């Protein structure tokens, strides 16, 4: 199962004890997965989704909030409400109606249902079950909610940001998508929604990923430094050999002659190490200065 699927399984199993939170999550399910279908010539409220966990969660919430245990699962992916259940749900969830009486399922949810922080958490949990998805965190960090309307997306973004989590919106074809790209923000949102097991799994993956990246950066840095050191040493030796053959070490000052001889004797040594072979001992900057002077003499010879 994908990481996103595991998150949904965990959220589907989480049921709040408080009725007001249960109503908030039920509102999310119906706002994002609800529809009006014709049955025996009459319009009925239904919940349609390919995710069976959403069907089970909706049934559980109906049972706990309204003591309803007779809801028809008409076919795979559709849960049909009878008239009595429909009336109770519409009143409790403050669904509006258009002028022709059609239930406004996809409009922003009533603020009365999410005025408490705990209810907002439950609402986000329901929205993720219906419209959320998450990429494999081993590859990239991306969590998103696909909304059918712009005002729906704006409300969702505002709710997420009330928890101090940065969310962004983008238009994708006919949908408005609310998304998070930062690993830390996704961790915070999982915590808000109550997906604590998934949160710990994600944190473990983040730690391993960051350690791997840190090691790779260090190896790359050390490789670059070694390459730089080897290149510089090769150039120094080339210059010293030119000075020896065309100018002669006997014509050099004692400090430069000694430096040239030591560099030829220890071609792979670092500057600090070379300074330890000199008599008297010279620091890294002193070694660098002497080698630079030898290179200048070589450059003059080349002219």
CATH class of the largest domain: Alpha Beta
Could you say what the CATH topology of the largest domain is called?
A: Endonuclease I-creI
User: How helix-rich are the residues, as a percent range?
Assistant: 55-70%
Note the total helix count: 11
Put the structure in a nutshell.
The chain has 303 residues and is of the alpha+beta class. 59% of the residues lie in helices and 14% in strands.
Describe this structure in words.
The chain is an alpha+beta fold and 303 residues long. The chain has two domains: 3-206, Endonuclease I-creI, CATH 3.10.28.10; 224-302, no CATH class. Helices cover 59% and strands 14% of the residues. It has helices at 3-13, 19-33, 52-66, 83-92, 117-131, 150-161, 183-193, 196-246, 254-265, 271-277, 284-302; strands at 34-39, 42-48, 72-75, 78-80, 96-97, 103-104, 132-134, 143-147, 168-172, 175-180. The strands form three sheets. Strands 1-2-4-3 form a four-stranded antiparallel sheet. Strands 7-8-10-9 form a four-stranded antiparallel sheet. It has a two-stranded antiparallel sheet with strand order 5-6. Strand 1 (34-39) and strand 2 form a beta hairpin. Helix 2 packs across helix 3, helix 8 packs across helix 11 (284-302) and helix 10 (271-277) crosses helix 11 (284-302). The longest helix has 51 residues, at 196-246.
